Amino acid sequence: MKKLALTLVIAQTCMAAGALAQDATATLSVSLDGIENGSAIPEKFAYCAPDGQGQTKDGGNVNPAISWSGAPVGTRSYALIVVDKDVPASFELANQPGKTIPADFPRQNFYHWVLVDIPGAMTNLPEGVDSKGVVPGGRAPGKTGYGIDGQNDYAKAGKGQGGEYDGPCPPWNDERLHHYHVVVYALDVPSLGLSGNFGGKQAEDAMKGHILARGETVGTYTQNPKLIGK
Questions:
Q1: Which tens digits make up the pLDDT trace of 77-93?
Q2: In the chain, N or C: fewer CB atoms in 10 Å?
Q3: How far is CA 196 from CA 40, 97, 130, in A?
């Protein structure tokens, strides 16, 4: 009986250690050209921009240059996720004249860029490689020379196919400053086996158990005239 109890304790200890090891990921250094961590994202990289009259117009929608370093031995691929965690949970108040979206309104994640199976030998993505402007109807997700593009959440918002990068476009009447998390993951597999119209949540789920390191840079953006410059 004592031997059985000891065996169970050892097994539980090993399981706990394994779980901790899986969570104890290393840290990548991630940098964006033209965007300091915690600073405002230039309109060049945004899907929408203030029109000077309290509403909105097309932005440059160019993807920023991204570089990373510090991947541990055993890294076989990378994944890139760009997510805004400050998007209103519903859009009935969005961009409505005479109305505002309170800062404490419920929020949800909105994925702006989902790129997986980036080759393990790569440590940067150039500016404009995935988007050079707003494309009517959007771009299709799929395989590229630098990974596989998933579907961003502009597809859910009715703005086309949602492939590749589409930048910030928060409602111009939102009282909350939006934060855009640019996260790079170093993975222990060459491919996550994803294809078709997979999104950010599916990519994050597929990465579980394969993350060796992660790093992020956060940029901010708003179209609300009262918040610009904060």
A1: 999 999 999 999 999 99
A2: N
A3: 33, 38, 17
Q: In sequence order, what DSSP letters do the residues of 164-198 get, joined into one string?
A: S-------TTB-SPEEEEEEEEEESSS-----SS-
CA angle 221/28/211 to nearest 5° reads: 105
CB neighbours of residue 136 within 10 Å? 6
pLDDT of residue 161: 84
Cα(191)–Cα(203) distance, integer angstroms = 11
3-state DSSP call for residue 3? helix
Distances in Å between the Cα of 201 and the Cα atoms of 89, 163, 207 are 16, 15, 10
**What pLDDT does 139 receive?**
87
